[in-house]
Structure formats: C-alpha cells, structure tokens
Amino acid sequence: MSSLRPIRRLVAGNDAQGLSVVQIDGPAPNAHPSSMSAGRGHTDLWVWNDSPMALSCDSDDSLLKYRFPGEPRGGHLRVVQSVGRPADYDPAKDPEVIPHHPPKLRPGTTGTWDRGGNSLYTSSMHKTQTVDYGMMLIGNRELRLDEGTVLMQPGDIVIQIGAWHEWAYPTDAQMAFDMIGAEFPGGVGTALGNDAPLAPKAAPPGIRLNRRIVTIDRPSDGKSVIVSDGPCPDVLTDPARPGFASQRMWVTAGCPAPIVYETLHLPRTMEPQNGGTVFRVDILPPDASWQGKATVDDARKFFAAMGSPGASAWHAGAKHPYLQQTATFDYCVLLEGEVTLLLDHGEVHFRAGEVALLKGVRHAWSNRSGARAVLAISSHQGRR
What we know:
Blueprint: E1 8-14, E2 20-27, E3 30-37, E4 40-48, E5 53-54, E6 75-82, E7 104-105, E8 112-114, E9 126-128, E10 130-138, E11 141-144, E12 149-152, E13 157-161, E14 166-168, E15 173-181, E16 211-217, E17 224-231, E18 235-237, E19 245-252, E20 277-284, H1 296-305, E21 328-336, E22 338-343, E23 347-351, E24 355-359, E25 363-366, E26 373-383
Parallel strand pairs: 1-24, 5-26, 13-16
Antiparallel strand pairs: 1-2, 3-4, 4-6, 6-15, 7-8, 8-9, 10-13, 10-15, 11-12, 11-14, 16-17, 18-19, 19-20, 20-26, 21-24, 21-26, 22-23, 22-25
C-alpha cells in the first residue's frame, strides 16, 4: 500500500488544575504503509515500556520506537490495515510466497516466532510473547489456527493468549490490536493451569452481544486451538438504562500477563491491579431512552456493581449522571455507532473506527443518536 487510511485519535489528560482536557486530536501520525508486506501496514496509536502506565505525561508516545512485539512489561496499541485478495489471485505469481517451515525466532525480534506461510494476502503462521485484544473494525479477516479457522467480522473480538496464528485477507480490512507483554515460563508460552472457560450465556432481552473468541496453545503438543467462540459470557446490565450492557472480555491480573485459559472468574472491577488490564465492550443505548429517569444514585449503584464504587465522579453541575474517573489509562475504540465524549473542558463527537485515549480523566460517554453505540475499552492500570 502506498498509504494508509488515516486513524482519528484523541488523547485526553488533566490540566494543572486537575480538569480533563483534550491534549491531541487528529490523524495518528506514526503510520507505516508497508510494514508487514506490500499489502499490509499499521499505524501506532500508543507505545509503553513499563506498567503501571504514566497518566501525567504530555508527550505523544505513539512516536516511541520499539522492537516488536514490545517490552515484557509494556506493549502497544496499533491499527493494522490490509488489502483483500482479488478473485484472479495466482499464488504462483506471488513474489512474497514463503512455504511453511519449522518454528524459528523472527530476526530482529525478542519474542516473535515464525513458521512461514506468508503471501501477499496471508500472514505467516506466527506467535508473539503477548496477550492481544483484537477488535475487528472494517471488512473481514480469516483467523487460522493449528486446529480451527474462524472468519472475523466487524464488531468481533479475539483474545489471543500467545497462540500460533495466521491471518488471511479475503477483503480489505482494518483491525485494532492492544498487544500486552506476556509471561512465557521456560520460553514456551503454552496454557497454564486448568481454569475452565466460561460458557456463553443467553443475551439479555433485546440486546445483541459481541462475539468473543479466545485462542491459546495447548500444553500437550503446543498446537493453537480455539478455547471459546460465542457471545460474551460475562455481561452486566443497568436497570436504569434499558439496552445497556457491559461485556467483560478479559483480564490480565499481572504484568507480564499470564498465559491462562480464562480470567473472567476474577472479581469484576474497572480498576486493574499489579500492572494489569481490564478489557470490556459496552453497549450504549440512546441517552433519550433513559434521560430524566436515571438518577445519580442509579449511576452509583451501577459503578458499585462494576466493582468500582469510587469511580463515580458526579458533582453539582456535572454534565452527565454517569460521570466517572479512575486511575487508569483507557484505550477506547468505537466499534459501532456515534458517541460524544464529555470532558470538564469541552465535548467531542466520535464515529465508528475512531479512537480515544483517556489518561485518568473525569469523563462520560453520551449517545445522542437514535441507535445504539458499541465501545471497546481496554483499561490499563495507571500511576499519577
């Protein structure tokens, strides 16, 4: 690709008085059109080298250099764009075809292994020493494992727990990845423990849940497998906001992140500990459906049910009853619909595919449209 579709990224922080403000708003500048092949590139949205993450910095850390996949206690947020495979594609004429081969460490990396299989429209079979939160934004991607293949569509979520995988590109596609340093005891990176995956539950009435795919390498033979695939099994609704649902997707309970089958048995909270993360996808109904009915007490009950009773930041003159603030660095990716971010100073409108990075700020999300909005939020523990 000669260029990448610009990714609108907003960064919000706190000013000298502790009030939330926009620090950066515009196309993310660190784009690499052909970083992976002639048909695939990425845009870095943020890079960090240690956890907990600093909340007070004013720099644009998307411009930091890193050696893929990143530091053991760090990681990066990126959006990958790829060109779809044309109908007349002929593998025999593809200059980038590399046959599959035995595993080897990819040159120039410290935690990426490769088994070949590359082409213009297929990535290599590879694994990274990371836990990845993958969010499908535009188009389709085929996720291929040693045992199992799934077609990902917009709104689908994959949790890659250090697993071998290969991507194929049937269409032009855009996908966001929060890649978090993981712990590979003995350098192996296969599943530890026996925490049973949670079974998907029936969706609350009238709510369409997001698909959650979890992959990992089986310890018996090191092959990558699908642990679970279906609607999110951990869903919290809000009685005061019909149509609202918070879907907890994954938790990293430490840093580097452990390679385990499941984490949703851990206590629910919006505030990760030990340098960890909490990843959720919230479905926001139109404000008009509950405005004037939901009270500040309702909001406080909601935050208590989320395991973070201190998250409520309501005050006299607050713009929204669900105003909140936590000591977290939140990566917010709008998967569907439109929302407005409310800050102490100003408000900003977002459309699907746009990203907000919130550094421990007081804020609220308002859906002023007539349709639902779906927001993926990866909360990293922060330090002030």
